[in-house]
Amino acid sequence: MSLEFAAIKGWMGRATVKILFVCLGNICRSPTAEGVFRAMAARELPEVALTVDSAGTADYHAGEAPDRRTCEAALRRGYDLSGLRARVVEPRDFQVFDLMLAMDRQNLETLKRQAPVQARGRVRLLLEFAPQCGLLEVPDPYYGGVNGFEQVLDLIEAASLGLCAALRSGALAP
Ligand code: 4NP
Question: Is 142 in the pocket of ligand 1 (CB under 6 A)?
């Protein structure tokens, strides 16, 4: 059993499991992941107390609500993101969160550079939890059309289900 596996098994006995989703601006992909995973975990993992949050590696949009197109696409599937506000990743996040899940490799690398050595293993790609999608990165929809926002939701819904299953079973791949 790897150390990481043991740690995740241990999470099920913890008071709270804390998960942070991370993208660049914190107005499209990571707030979507925050809203989708929070809703799904409430259904799939009612026995686990979770703290779910999101942040961006860039501060361009700090304080703003999620992108209008993101909110509209999410609401069509029943997720209300309107109360969320963008923030940048802070040093204390590396102390607080059990898992920090990046939307793409660029943000993964930024987090790994910022992370203290002991926190690096807790920084992963979200789409590791949806291998059936055949992608490791959630594409940035910001400069694209409406289909991009639908794809973001498709990928994040799949990964959120996978993450719930991984947390429940303790079978998280190292
Ligand atoms: P996000 O999308 O990282 O999914 O929130 C973006 C939002 C804003 C910008 C880029 C990506 N921007 O360049 O302002």
Answer: yes
On whether the pTM is more than 0.70, the answer is yes
- Which ligand 1 atom lies nearest to the CA of residue 29? 4
Q: How many Å apart are CA 159 and CA 156, to the nearest integer?
A: 5
133 has catalytic annotation: no
| Closest residue to atom 6 of ligand 1, CA basis | 25
Give CA–CA dist 28/168, Å, rounded.
27
Nearest to 33 by CA among 170, 117, 167, 138: 138
Closest CA to 125 of 141, 149, 105, 148: 105
What are the backbone dihedrals phi and psi of residue 72, each rounded to the nearest 5 degrees, phi first?
-65, -45
Quick check: 44 pLDDT over 50? Answer: yes
Residue minimizing CA distance to atom 13 of ligand 1? 25
Is the minimum distance from the CB of 27 to ligand 1 under 6 angstroms? Answer: yes
**Ligand 1 in contact with 81 (CB < 6 A)?**
no
pLDDT tens sequence across 98-133: 999 999 999 999 999 999 999 999 999 999 999 999
What is 3-169's CATH number, 3.40.50.2300, 3.30.70.1560, 3.40.190.10, 3.20.20.140?
Answer: 3.40.50.2300
